[in-house]
Amino acid sequence: MAVSFTTDRMLRFGDCDISGTAYYPSYLNLLNGVVEEFWSWIGYPWHEIIWKERWGTPTVHLTCNFSKPSFFGDKLTFRVTVKKVGRSSVALDHEIWCGDELRWTVHQVLAASWLDKHTSMTWPDDVRAKLMSFLPKDDAANPHQPVQRG
């Protein structure tokens, strides 16, 4: 079973349109904050890897599905799951809940990138090992073998 990172965000007035409904650009800003928190949780805070090591994790693919609206004052629970670790990329799936209602889902691919050269890089060994540790054991044992999930 995969290990997931979970955190909460309150939907604030500035995240919503005039009717109090979540505004999708604000959703993406919230998501970015969650991803930043995820990297700190696994031991690689962005302020250290960006300023000291000069690499980052830009988003190279993002797919969102909005199933129910969220409103000003809602507490959203974000669950981040590592789905695949590549040579220089990581695929994350996000589920965003409000109580027991799934509000939206995201599939996101991040790439390891040298900030000064603006080029792809291979994950450092320790980072790759940490990311791989969040995959289900069958995925981590054979990362090139496709695994189907229901």
From TrEMBL:
Gene3D superfamilies: Hotdog Thioesterase. It comes from the Bacteria. This is Acyl-CoA thioesterase. It comes from Aestuariivirga litoralis.
